[in-house]
Structure formats: C-alpha cells, structure tokens
Amino acid sequence: SFQRRVVGVTTRLDKLLGEVRLLEDKRKSYLAVLSAVRRIPLDVLGEIFTILFPVDLTIRDRVALLRLGHVCRSWRAALMQLRSVW
Hints:
The protein is mainly alpha-helical.
C-alpha cells in the first residue's frame, strides 16, 4: 500500500517538475523580449508610438496612450517627449 503511494507521489512530482521546467522556459523567453525592448532609445520608441496612432486622436486613442504610459517609466518618458501625441 505504501509502495503504491510512493510511486503515485513520485509520478506526480515528475509531472509537476516537467511543468516547472516549461514555465521556466517561458519565463526566460519573456525576460529576453523585455530586455530587448528596454534597450530601445526613447526617441525610437517615441517614433514607434507616433506610428501607432492617427493624427487626430479619438477618446479610445487617448485611453490607449494613457495605458502605454503606464507600462514603465521609459515608455511614459517617450510619450511625454512627443509633441505630436499631445
């Protein structure tokens, strides 16, 4: 009886460890993307934001801009430097 329980727990642990490895791989890939995005100069980031939005901003566009500004400090700084956005 105890032997079956040990085998069951071992099997469950193996499965969970496999899931942990998959999650760690996903996390590493996300961190790699974030690292690349953080290295983009503010003026280039600002140009990207300018391309994203039309010249005449609607309420929906303004809300989207506010959300972009909440992503991180550098995104907010890039948005603040753009006169065309405001």
